[in-house]
Amino acid sequence: xxxxxxxxxxxxxxxxxxxxxxxxxxxxxxxxxxxxxxxxxxxxxxxxxxxxxxxxxxxxxxxxxxxxxxxxxxxxxxxxxxxxxxxxxxxxxxxxxxxxxxxxxxxxxxxxxxxxxxxxxxxxxxxxxxxxxxxxxxxxxxxxxxxxxxxxxxxxxxxxxxxxxxxxxxxxxxxxxxxxxxxxxxxxxxxxxxxxx
Length: 197
Prior knowledge:
Blueprint: H1 2-18, H2 22-30, E1 34-54, E2 58-78, E3 87-90, E4 93-98, E5 101-107, E6 114-115, H3 130-147, H4 153-171, E7 176-181
Parallel strand pairs: 4-7
Antiparallel strand pairs: 1-2, 2-5, 2-6, 3-4
């Protein structure tokens, strides 16, 4: 009878030593869900020029304006995309490859598009209308989207995410923590704001 209990205790001990900790760790990491780690406010100055020509050759008049705009971008890691193969555990050492940085929220409100009336230069011959302002606004948004990944926002987001994840994994008892990220190819999918297919 005594051998029977020793055998049971030994089996339980071996099973607890050999169990895979990855599901537990992955569930803890995924519980954070979409981790918005960086919020960036981008101020952009838009300069517009409209030229009026006669017969397409002679410049009759040129109108200019300057507008100030503001975009708010939140970037982070969607930890819901973490796969079991992204986590390797070896005793107190853990290696995690996190999903790529992505834009979680992008706001570019039109009410932040403010035309500087002191620089506005138009005349009765050549005036800016609402359609002109909308086109400049649209072009400014496309420019922000295209240039965003060159601003350092990806590395800033990775650095902040790494600090947060290291704290979480240290609390889970890991001493050697190695965190990497999947490559961020582009923050935005190509967007056609003109409505063309």
